[in-house]
Design goal:
Layout (H helix, E strand, L loop, with lengths): L1 H12 L6 E12 L28 E9 L10 E6 L1 E5 L12 E5 L4 H20 L5 E6 L16 H10 L3 H7 L10 E6 L9 H14 L11 H15 L2 H21 L15
Parallel strand pairs: 1-6, 6-7
Antiparallel strand pairs: 1-2, 2-3, 4-5
């Protein structure tokens, strides 16, 4: 509660800097179908059965996302990146979709080292390429989950320190390799921060973006017999991301986030309040 209070007080007392952009990053599993739930069916209507590989272990794919508050004056809609969390492996046996020895992308969970690699090689270049023309400072905010190197570990002296040291030691050649179209002299200052523990309401993705994107994904079905369920999940989520009205949704989510800061201050850092969403207004 003390950390949450300090966090929101610093946010509410900070003067808005138009050259600063705050990028929120987080990850989420998307599954091929949702287990459980109740469906009310009118009389005489029969539900169409849905074939799945396993109802206990549905096909699922983790995605790492990065969004920011839109800036209409700079034609920036808030989208930074949506990245499948996978590793490239070689098939050990033949199936209907691949042969023995074929390489394919396998869904995995995040570890600290993989998270660091994705932030360095994918999230940071995506953020720099989107905002370098008008932003002088990028602040990348993450939670302290175990997959980020948090949990029982010290984020400040672990993940955050490693990322900050990596950025400060980047040479011009390395910057060009990461962002070929951005001159090294135009790179913004990048700062890495972690939000207080047990505070998903302080991250725009957890506050509303994941829910909005999940609604946009809708039902996931296989496109053809050659497509696996994992590939169907990846395809459908990326299609929803490309079609997602990020500017409108992110504006409402970040407006809600500012109201959440005020609510947290009212309850002295607690979470006993109704989140004042503006998603449907």
């Amino acid at each position: 509660m003390v950390d949450r209070m300090k966090w929101v007080e610093s946010k509410l007392s900070t003067v808005v800097d138009p050259s600063l952009i705050e990028v929120h990053i987080d990850e989420k599993w998307f599954t091929s179908f949702h287990r459980g739930g109740i469906v009310i069916v009118p009389p005489g209507i029969q539900l169409r059965p849905k074939a799945v590989v396993s109802k206990r272990h549905p096909a699922q794919q983790m995605f790492l996302a990065a969004i920011a508050e839109p800036r209409r004056e700079h034609n920036f809609n808030g989208k930074i990146a949506l990245i499948p969390v996978t590793e490239r492996v070689v098939a050990k046996r033949s199936t209907r979709t691949r042969n023995t020895g074929d390489e394919y992308e396998k869904p995995i969970t995040l570890t600290k080292q993989r998270f660091l690699h994705m932030v360095k090689t994918l999230v940071v270049p995506s953020a720099v390429s989107r905002v370098f023309e008008w932003s002088r400072t990028i602040k990348i905010q993450m939670d302290n989950a175990g997959g980020h190197g948090g949990g029982r570990s010290d984020m400040a002296h672990g993940t955050l320190l490693e990322l900050q040291t990596w950025y400060q030691c980047l040479s011009d050649d390395e910057k060009l390799a990461l962002c070929p179209f951005v001159p090294p002299s135009r790179w913004p200052l990048i700062i890495f921060v972690s939000q207080p523990a047990r505070s998903p309401d302080l991250n725009a993705l957890d506050l509303g973006a994941w829910w909005s994107l999940e609604k946009a994904v809708g039902e996931i079905t296989q496109k053809s017999d050659e497509e696996t369920w994992i590939e169907a999940v990846q395809r459908r989520v990326m299609e929803a991301w490309n079609q997602w009205n990020a500017e409108d949704k992110c504006c409402k989510i970040f407006s809600s986030l500012k109201l959440v800061w005020a609510k947290i201050k009212e309850v002295n850092g607690g979470n006993c309040f109704v989140i004042p969403h503006q998603l449907e207004k």
